[in-house]
Amino acid sequence: MTAKVAFESVEVGTELPARSFPVTRATLVQYAGASGDFNPIHWNEKFAREVGLPDVIAHGMFTMAEAIRVVTDWAGDPGAVVEYGVRFTKPVVVPNDDTGAVIQVGAKVAALLDDKRVRIDLTATSEGKKVLGMARAVVRLA
């Protein structure tokens, strides 16, 4: 598979469709099972508070994975992502209610590179707070 977006069709400033990703406690349990990360800060309120967190928090790698979905959905091929990195700036706090939390992700083309590659800068927030910093992906387009 290859990217469905043509390099010639994008320019610096092109915005990718923004997305919102709901996160509940059930989501965290599913992710823990898939990843093998059963750290109690992701499922045990008492433990999370004892170590200084406001409540249970989402796995950092889960947050990172949800954010890149904006890019892979736009490109049409997860394999088109050739680089991806973030800094974790704030945790995604997931309350134990019917709503949970929401991660809002936006992205735009920040640079046109050689070999039909583009750099995408992402923004990810939850409850109005930036949860990922320096979130950047390099994508090889068609």
Q: Give the biggest beta sheet.
A: 5 strands, antiparallel
Class of secondary structure makeup? alpha+beta
CA radius of gyration is 16 Å
Count the E strands. 5
Distance between the termini: 10 Å
The dominant shape is elongated
Number of contiguous helices = 3
Strand order of the largest sheet: 1-3-4-5-2
Range of helix content: 10-25%
**Percent range for β-strand residues:** 35-45%
SSE order and pairing:
Blueprint: E1 15-23, H1 25-35, H2 45-50, H3 60-75, E2 81-88, E3 101-112, E4 117-126, E5 129-140
Antiparallel strand pairs: 1-3, 2-5, 3-4, 4-5
Highlighted features:
single chain; alpha+beta; 36% strand
Explain what you see:
Strands 1-3-4-5-2 form a 5-stranded antiparallel sheet. 23% of the residues lie in helices and 36% in strands. It contains 3 helices and 5 strands, in the order E-H-H-H-E-E-E-E. It is elongated. It has helices spanning 25-35, 45-50, 60-75; strands at residues 15-23, 81-88, 101-112, 117-126, 129-140. The longest helix is centred in the middle third of the chain and has 16 residues, at 60-75. The chain is α+β, with helices and mostly antiparallel strands and 142 residues long.
